[in-house]
Prior knowledge:
Elements: H1 15-37, H2 56-71, H3 77-96, H4 116-134, H5 141-145, H6 148-161
Helix pairs in contact: 2-3, 2-6, 3-4, 3-6, 4-6
Amino acid sequence: MKINASAVPSLGYSPALMAIGIIALILTVAVIALPLLIPPKAKEDNAGRHNEKKDASEWVEKVEEIKQKYSKGEVEEVEAYAMLSRVAREFVSEEMDLNLYSKTLRDLEWAPVGNKKRYDLFRQTISALYPPEYANAESDRAADEATVESAANWVEDLISRWNS
C-alpha cells in the first residue's frame, strides 16, 4: 500500500521556527549549566589565623631569625638553607594561593598565567638555594661560594621585590 503525501497531516512548523526553537533550547541549557561548570572564586575569609596574609616585614623577620640562629650555632648550615627555602615557599604559596611546598625545580618550570615575572623571581630564588642546600661544596662551585647570609639576602630580595 502506497502512502500518499497528502494523506499525512502537516504539523504546520516551518524549518526556520524549528531551528529557532532548538537554538533557544540549547541556550537555556547552557545558561543553566554554565554556573555549575565554572567553580566559584574563593572568597576572602579573614576569620582564622591561617587565612591572614602576613605583612612583608613579618617574612623578613623570619629570615632574620634564621640568620641569627645560624650565627649563634643553633642550626647547621644545610638546615639554615632548608629553612630559608621553606620561608620562600611559604611566602609565595600564600601570596599566589598555590601549594608550592613540595615542588621540585622541575615542577617549578611552569609559570601561572599573569604572574610570570613574580613566579620567575621565586623560581630563581629556589634554584639559587638548591646548590648550597643539596650539593657537595667540595665539588660544586656554586655551593662552595654560597653563604647563609647571601642566601638570606636572596630570600629577602624575593620578599621585597614581590609587590614592586
